[in-house]
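Hello forum,

I keep getting stuck at the same step: I have a sequence, I want structure tokens, and every attempt I make locally crashes halfway through. Rather than fight my setup again tonight, could one of you with a working pipeline run this one for me? It's a single chain of 169 residues.
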Amino acid sequence: MSKRWTLLVLSAALVMGLGLGPSHILAQGEEAEAVARKVEITLGEFFFQVEGGTQNAPITLQAGERVALELMNTGLILHEAFFGQDANIAEGKYNLNLLEDVEVIVEGIATGGKFEVEAEGLGEVELEPNVELELLFTVPNTPGTFEIGCFIPGHYQAGMHAPLIIAAP
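Reply #2:
Ran it on my machine without issues. Output:
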């Protein structure tokens, strides 16, 4: 299955009970790994903003750190979050996907109930207005400068991308 994960696909898979490749839906009460730090990121017309920061300011994560990225779309239209390097506007993605082979747990609300999915690798998430998702993962041990960006037509060009710095441990 393509690694272009969307909230719609996740929701449909959960409602219909479909498998998502190597994934595991956590049972109620089952605990995910401890999180070292939560980072709240707001998506809006045409920005990413860490709580307390300025729009499209650099976001810094520590290599090897266990994080919970809490994404919330406060905008009026659909937005995406991709994580990577080397923006490819024509294909609507980064040529290097930071979370390609990273185990990610996605939590959110779908069809009136909460859901949680664990999967190997994540291409992107799409958030409708007023949707909140949490991505739980261990930051890859790949120090460098990446980006978080939205590739919905026109959004990246309108400035909807921010530096994502992976600092050495």
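Confidence is low (pLDDT under 50) at residues 1-32. If your local run keeps crashing, start a new thread with the error log.
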